[in-house]
Design a protein that fits this description.
The complex is a heterodimer of chains A (308) and B (325). Chain A is mostly helical and 308 residues long. Chain B is an all-alpha fold. Chain B is elongated, with a radius of gyration of 28 Å. In chain B, helix 8 runs antiparallel to helix 9 and helix 10 packs across helix 11. Classes of the chains: A mainly alpha (308), B mainly alpha (325).
């Protein structure tokens, strides 16, 4: 017991962060968030039945259902991950204050940055595990359905005596709508966006007085983040449309303060069957890390001397 | 440190952090747009059409999901034959998901085929207005597909669909000039084949359209020869067009002998030539066909009663009759 306590209190930063992270993760799991997976399973299976009559050639038979499965699943993942990351983060600090756990932790020699990083990591772990489980479900459903579609298409192509090159082209085109590395990249992009929101919610919760305030402001920033690129473009092309100085200042402030979420809309392209280059995913990861690190350090800056 | 000092430092840090990431994000944003991986911002008109809630969902990074819902709504409009609503909804859908081929093709199909067919039989409208509505629907379907191609220039299927629409002889009178329309169809098919992803029928379809353009016979013959060189392309239509175009190039060609050579037996040659002779509705050229048929009838001892020249032609496309009933 003593050894464990020593490890916790005098151990490395990473050790402390991990202990707090697992505690936060367990705390959130007990709130029964995983029940949502049952809803997701229903959605993933239901999306199989939106097979509208199609007019395209037999080579396109079933493609729309594959797109529908991806669209519904990734849409649900986005909603779930953003809501979970904001609400769970907004809830953690006030709940620790309410339960008085915070006082117990801060009374020990636990640096406040470790506490914040641990809490954030706990939320991110929960979001990651949830997304991974949803991803397994989606990929499974998509794999089964795309094999069915491909079998149907190949039978048609063989019966019509298509040449091997045409059959290969058909196979490649259908494969774009099935499970792919780009699809896994899109799920990771969903996680990155949720990570940015969680770290931002953490920053807001350090100076906010209520969970509700943190949640509302975070959602507002999430939506404004999808306009940020428009504001940035307006600022960078300023003068061409004769904007006034105040309009320019406003677009500059929005561009500098708000995160840019439009780049993460690359997910839509993957749903539409395009491939996501690994370099793009790498750049999105860099952006995600940059935001998460900055918001965490900024949270610590506010939280460091906060009195409870 | 006092609170105002702390807040001041934080505000400056946020601005510096923003200034540091701005060029990188702007560069990535441009890179993604150039690669066609992100779409242009949603139009204000679209935001208004889909309503506040859907707009918020779409702005929340779920554009394709909103497009999926709208597609279901458009299907209901289609079942209720509310053609203006169908067209309007598809305009919105493609603004949300401009890279999805299915939406462009379905939107165009509803307009150029379903709505156009509906107006042929719409007894509530007087004939002149029915004809205008029919024509408008076809033109709208074409324009929609062309917009889709502008957004997705390398999509073989959209180009092939445009070629199919423009070479549809049931719709050809909706366009001002059949010659120019067939030329545009050939161009669309050729561009589709040039993507390297098109199915084999697309190249043959380019020939079928090009062969119907006056003045393009030489190019059509060159294309026919290159396609015929491949065994899998030797469909009856392509083979007969090769013969017809050769007869155009050389008016003294013994078409019966050449048909025997291409179709192996005089009986098969006669069947192929008679079939082509009767396809008047499709506006294919018939150079040398009559001469060849006459010679083959002599060879096969076909009586005057059984001659293809005395057989009634298949029912003709009669647009005036459609709209006068």
């Amino acid at each position: 017991m003593t050894a464990k306590t020593d490890h916790t209190t005098h151990g490395s930063h990473l050790g402390r962060i991990l202990v707090i992270a697992f505690h936060a993760f367990t705390q959130l799991v007990r709130m029964k968030v995983f029940y949502f997976l049952a809803v997701f399973a229903v959605i993933a299976i239901a999306s199989n039945f939106f097979d509208l009559p199609q007019h395209e050639g037999p080579e396109a038979e079933g493609i729309n259902v594959l797109r529908s499965i991806k669209s519904w699943s990734l849409g649900t993942m986005t909603l779930f991950s953003v809501v979970l990351s904001i609400v769970a983060t907004a809830l953690l600090l006030p709940k620790d204050v309410e339960d008085r756990t915070l006082y117990t932790i801060l009374a020990k020699p636990v640096p406040r940055i470790d506490y914040l990083a641990g809490k954030l990591l706990g939320v991110l772990l929960l979001v990651f595990v949830s997304l991974a489980l949803m991803d397994v479900l989606m990929t499974g459903v998509l794999q089964i359905r795309s094999s069915m579609v491909l079998d149907q298409q190949l039978a048609m192509a063989h019966s019509l005596g298509w040449p091997p090159a045409a059959i290969e082209s058909l196979r490649a085109e259908t494969a774009l709508h099935g499970p792919s590395w780009s699809l896994q990249g899109a799920v990771f992009a969903v996680f990155l966006r949720a990570s940015i929101m969680a770290s931002l919610a953490l920053l807001i919760s350090t100076f906010s007085s209520s969970t509700l305030f943190t949640t509302i402001i975070s959602f507002l920033i999430y939506f404004i983040g999808h306009f940020q690129a428009d504001a940035r473009d307006a600022y960078l092309q300023a003068g061409q449309a004769g904007e006034g100085i105040f309009a320019r200042m406003a677009t500059l402030v929005i561009s500098l303060v708000m995160p840019d979420f439009q780049n993460f809309n690359v997910i839509d392209a993957v749903i539409e069957g395009q491939a996501m280059p690994i370099l793009i995913l790498g750049k999105l990861t860099l952006i995600g890390l940059y935001y998460a690190l900055f918001f965490t350090v900024a949270s610590w800056f506010v939280f460091a001397e906060k009195e409870f | 440190m006092k609170t105002w000092q702390r807040n001041g430092i934080l505000a400056v840090a946020v601005l510096l952090f923003g200034a540091a990431r701005l060029p990188f994000e702007a560069g990535l944003s441009k890179e993604l747009r150039d690669a066609g991986l992100t779409s242009l911002p949603m139009q204000i008109g679209t935001r208004e059409k889909i309503g506040q809630t859907s707009s918020a969902v779409a702005l929340g990074g779920l554009r394709t999901l909103v497009a999926t819902f709208l597609n279901l709504r458009a299907f209901t409009f289609f079942q209720e034959q509310r053609w203006a609503d169908v067209a309007d909804t598809f305009d919105t859908i493609v603004d949300l998901a401009p890279r999805t081929r299915y939406y462009w093709e379905t939107g165009s199909w509803h307009s150029a085929y379903n709505a156009a067919s509906y107006f042929i039989n719409d007894s509530k409208l007087p004939p002149l207005r029915r004809r205008e509505a029919w024509r408008d629907s076809i033109l709208r379907g074409r324009a929609f597909l062309e917009r889709g191609i502008k957004n997705n220039p390398n999509d073989w299927s959209l180009l092939a669909n445009l070629g199919f629409l423009l070479s549809d002889t049931n719709k050809i009178s909706a366009f001002r000039s059949p010659e120019k329309t067939f030329a545009a169809a050939a161009d669309a098919y050729t561009r589709s084949a040039a993507t390297g992803k098109a199915l084999p029928y697309v190249k043959r379809s380019a020939l079928y359209s090009l062969a119907r353009v006056t003045g393009e016979e030489k190019n059509a013959l060159a294309l026919a020869r290159s396609l015929y060189a491949e065994q899998s392309n030797r469909t009856p239509t392509l083979t007969i067009l090769l013969l017809v175009l050769e007869a155009f190039e050389n008016p003294n060609l013994d078409t019966a002998a050449r048909a025997n050579e291409l179709f192996k037996t005089p009986e098969k040659a006669y069947d192929a030539l008679s079939g082509h002779w009767q396809r008047t509705r499709e506006r294919f050229p018939v150079y040398g066909i009559a001469k060849g048929l006459e010679a083959l009838e002599k060879t096969l001892n076909i009586t005057a009663e059984k001659s293809i020249f005395t057989q009634p032609p298949p029912p003709q496309f009669d647009e005036d009759r459609w709209f006068s009933q």
